[in-house]
Design brief:
By secondary structure, the protein is of the alpha+beta class. It has helices at 2-24, 30-92, 105-111, 164-186, 225-234; strands at residues 97-100, 113-120, 127-132, 138-143, 191-195, 199-202, 211-215, 238-241, 245-249. 10% of the residues are buried.
């Protein structure tokens, strides 16, 4: 709409200039002035309207091609994950079949995390949780839905508070350590140590000199390290509590 108003205004100005030239100029100068006026207007139109529109159109086409390529890549990655999930289920259940329980599984596979699937041909189970971590590892855990009446465990008290180390680990520790472990594992490392002040170190050299990799803010006090080590082991990391640090291996 703004572009149409600009072109309409320029045409009105051009018409006024042409009328003025025809009314005021006589003789051999009239035709060159008219040609010059139309030439200046054409150059202005080309520079301010046609070229910007062409650049905008080209940018939109490049963006559409990039989005199409990313979508195609995500679909290819989704097919790869589908085969891995099927292979994981068929290891224990040869007749297993399944389907995603989410609207856009390709986006989930590209971003990682945990997603739920519906399984068939798996006795006693109806669902499974598929986890794709940042290092590209995939795990599949079968889930059995149990109603509250069938559950033998009493429900937890609504005002029950989680321990400090568990709150810290869920809020900060799991994500920070997960990213660092994925990066170190991709570079051939298999261990790290976390000091009492939260500093993370690795020892890549034979002389025993440590290299600092970062700091975990709010790292739990030393008295909570054994419980923290249990949380790490639940996530597949081997943790050993030492005098001045926690040694983590994978």
């Amino acid at each position: 709409m703004k572009q149409k108003k600009t072109i309409g205004g320029s045409i009105g100005l051009l018409t006024g200039v042409v009328i003025a030239i025809l009314a005021l100029v006589r003789g051999p100068w009239q035709l060159p002035l008219l040609i010059g006026t139309f030439a200046v207007w054409g150059l202005w139109l080309l520079w301010t309207q046609v070229l910007p529109f062409r650049r905008t159109l080209q940018a939109q086409r490049r963006q559409e091609r990039a989005e199409s390529f990313n979508r195609s890549l995500a679909q290819t990655l989704l097919h790869h994950v589908n085969y891995r999930v099927s292979a994981c289920l068929k290891t224990g259940y040869p007749d297993a079949r399944w389907e995603w329980m989410m609207r856009d599984p390709a986006l989930f596979v590209a971003q990682g995390g945990t997603g739920r699937i519906r399984v068939f041909g798996v006795p006693d189970y109806e669902y499974a949780d598929v986890t794709v971590d940042q290092s590209g590892k995939l795990s599949c855990a079968l889930v059995k839905m149990v109603s509250m009446q069938e559950s033998k465990e009493p429900p937890a008290a609504p005002n029950q508070q989680k321990p400090d180390h568990e709150v810290w680990y869920e809020a900060q520790g799991r994500d920070a350590l997960g990213k660092l472990v994925a990066d170190l594992d991709s570079r051939g490392h298999n261990s790290l140590t976390v000091r009492e002040d939260g500093s993370i170190c690795i020892c890549p050299q034979t002389d025993g000199k440590e290299v600092k990799q970062g700091v975990l803010p709010g790292f739990p006090a030393k008295g909570l390290w054994p419980e923290l080590a249990e949380l790490l082991e639940r996530d597949g990391l081997a943790a050993a509590v030492q005098n001045d640090c926690i040694a983590v291996t994978w």
